[in-house]
Design a protein that fits this description.
9-stranded mixed sheet, YbaK protein, 28% strand, Rossmann fold, BirA Bifunctional Protein, domain 2, globular, 3 domains, 5-stranded mixed sheet, binds adenosine-5'-triphosphate, 577 residues, binds magnesium ion, alpha+beta
């Protein structure tokens, strides 16, 4: 690759629209360009980086015995109606009609299509287990596309689907994918952590997310300092506190004036109690229906837990004016006693005694509120966000919170899809059984962004070698000198012949800007041919990550450098689990 002929439109300025560093550097390095919200063109180097991820993914999926196929991106509505997701999926599913007025969608994921293949093509237990995967563009009409490749509307995913004869066998397929993912992310050079996760819209009983640890992550993880427990906060189980019955005398429930006191802290202050003694009542819309959710005043509702408890497709906190329109209840003074809408309480609320709560009347609260006596929720459960004060649900140890970027997600699906689509095989006894399924995703394009979040410095990207779009850049610093140019060209050709991905900077630019671009692009190895070659027959090698430089005799340069790069690559390919 000759730099002078390539499309690598680097820029000095940081684009204002880019909030996170991976987005900034991908734009500045000329890796991607935005077409419109959530849609990006991968320019040549961006595509090359993504293809590096793809090949690692492919190698490891194949090693694990999975087979690659390619399914259509456009999917007919009938399949989604069969699975029940045409209704459930919501506005992330981009739907449209063809010229015959038939309904279609752009595939956000492929459970329906692959289950359809299984029911047509897999008939006997002898064909199982089978794991089918593809690497393909997905479309999700994300409500907030942002952070460049991190959350696009169109993005590249590796999705795999396993078919097994039993739960036990499906567990083995899951374990294989868990190991394959561990190998993949290790080979990508990422610092990551598998965590227990919520199963989301795809449904299923069990799942792990693979999280790249980075401050800009959209997910929060809880990790135990003493044992192996790690979970997404959406899932992390709060251990119920003291459930012993109280011997405290129950007070009368009394209405008190609390003019203008809408927030927990202010009410607590005003009444001389702590927020722990206040019941916070929040109105959520669960698939459009209002529900009142109760947590202790110092706690936060975890909406994914709420969604799961209610078996809802979607829950959101109601806006203040919607609360009034839907419930005619005064925002800031809503409480659980005699409330006319469905009441859902966090388990901890049920242990509260003589609490303060809204009176469902403007400017008033109640004191002496006692769950069970003064109100009975329709449902109770673990609904609140875990905190670092909570004990580890496994070992009781201390927890810490950290941010992460979800790069992979594996699910045990069970028979949800095979039953809905009547996808069965004949077992050993000759009976028809639904396939026991699993599904496994990797955000291939997101991996590139996540790698940059973890690997950059003030000068630009510092690609881990396995993901670098080019492994080495050869800088010709004396373009006008014919001999130097001939020597630089030969080195470029020799490195390429040795099997390396090489970029040859043959541009008529000042050395300073060549160095800057090489740093910005994050190319792991840089070799310069210039004055030292002219005087002493030496070239200079510099490593992007450490900044270490050394000189090498020109005659040995190609062989020595190729051997170094190869050795480093081999060390990344050798993964011990
Ligand atoms: P998220 O919670 O980030 O929306 P998800 O749970 O919807 O992710 P899955 O359905 O499990 O994601 O998709 C598999 C993988 O695809 C994810 O682990 C993630 O790496 C990637 N992915 C999902 N949505 C996007 C997106 N909008 N842009 C880029 N990658 C994505
Ligand atoms: Mg999503």
């Amino acid at each position: 690759m000759r730099y002078s002929q390539m499309l690598i439109p680097t820029t000095k300025e940081t684009p204002a629209e880019a909030e996170v560093v991976s987005h900034q550097l991908l734009l500045r390095g000329g890796f991607i360009r935005k077409l419109t919200s959530g849609l990006y063109t991968y320019l040549p180097l961006g595509l090359a980086a993504m293809q590096k991820v793809e090949s690692i993914v492919r190698e490891e999926m194949n090693r694990a015995g999975a087979q690659e196929l390619l399914m259509p991106m456009v999917q007919p509505a009938d399949l989604w109606q069969e699975s029940g997701r045409w209704k459930k999926y919501g506005p992330e599913l981009l739907r449209f009609k063809d010229r015959h007025e038939r309904d279609y969608c752009l595939g956000p994921t492929h459970e329906e299509v692959v289950t359809d293949i299984a029911r047509r093509e897999l008939h006997s237990y002898r064909q199982l287990p089978m794991n089918l995967y593809q690497i393909q563009t997905k479309f999700r009409d994300e409500i907030r596309p942002r952070f460049g490749l991190m959350r696009g509307r169109e993005f590249v995913m590796k999705d795999a689907y396993s078919f097994d004869v039993s739960d036990e066998e499906a567990g083995k397929s899951y374990q294989k994918m868990y190991e394959a993912y561990t190998r993949i992310f290790k080979r990508c050079g990422l610092e990551f952590r598998p965590v227990e996760a919520d199963s989301g819209t795809i449904g299923g009983s069990f799942s792990h997310e693979f999280m790249v640890l980075a401050d800009t992550g959209e997910d929060t993880l809880v990790i135990c300092k003493s044992c192996d427990y790690a979970a997404n906060v959406e899932k992390a189980k709060v251990v119920p506190g003291n459930t012993e019955p109280t011997d405290q005398a129950l007070q009368e429930c009394v209405k008190v004036e609390t003019p203008g006191m809408k927030k927990v802290d202010r009410v607590a202050d005003f009444l001389g109690v702590t927020p722990k003694e206040v019941i916070k009542t929040m109105i959520y819309l669960a698939d459009g229906e209002p529900v009142a959710v109760l947590v202790r005043g110092d706690r936060e509702v975890q909406s994914v837990k709420l969604k799961n408890l209610l078996h809802a497709a979607d829950v959101e906190l109601a806006e203040d004016d919607a609360v009034w329109k839907l419930t005619k209840l005064p925002v800031g003074y809503i409480g659980p006693v005699a409330i006319p809408i469905k009441l859902i309480a966090d388990q901890e609320v049920m242990q509260m005694v003589n609490a303060v709560a809204g009176a469902c009347e403007k400017g008033h609260h109640l004191t002496g509120v006692n769950p069970g006596r003064d109100f009975t929720p329709a449902m109770t459960g673990d609904l609140r966000q875990i905190t670092v004060e909570d004990p580890c649900p496994l070992c009781g140890g201390t927890l810490e919170l950290t941010e992460g970027i979800e790069v992979g997600h594996i699910f045990k699906l069970g028979t949800n899809y095979s039953q809905a689509l009547a996808a069965t095989f004949q077992d050993k006894e000759g009976c028809q059984q639904p396939f026991v399924m699993g599904c496994y995703g990797i955000g291939v394009s997101r991996v590139v962004a996540a790698a940059i979040e973890q690997n950059h410095d003030k000068n630009g990207i510092v690609f881990p070698l396995p993901l670098a779009p080019v492994q080495i850049i050869v800088l010709n610093l004396s373009l006008k000198n014919e001999e130097t140019t001939a020597a630089a060209e030969k080195l470029y050709m020799d490195l390429q012949a040795a099997g390396l991905d090489v970029l040859y900077d043959d541009r008529d630019e000042r050395p300073g800007s060549k160095f800057k671009d090489a740093d910005l692009l994050g190319i792991p190895y840089r070799v310069t041919v210039g004055k030292t070659w002219e005087k002493e027959g030496l070239v200079e090698l510099r490593l992007r990550r450490s900044g270490d430089t050394s000189t090498i005799a020109y005659d040995q340069a190609a062989v020595e450098i190729a051997a170094m790069v190869r050795a480093e690559m081999q060390s990344t390919e050798k993964v011990d689990l």
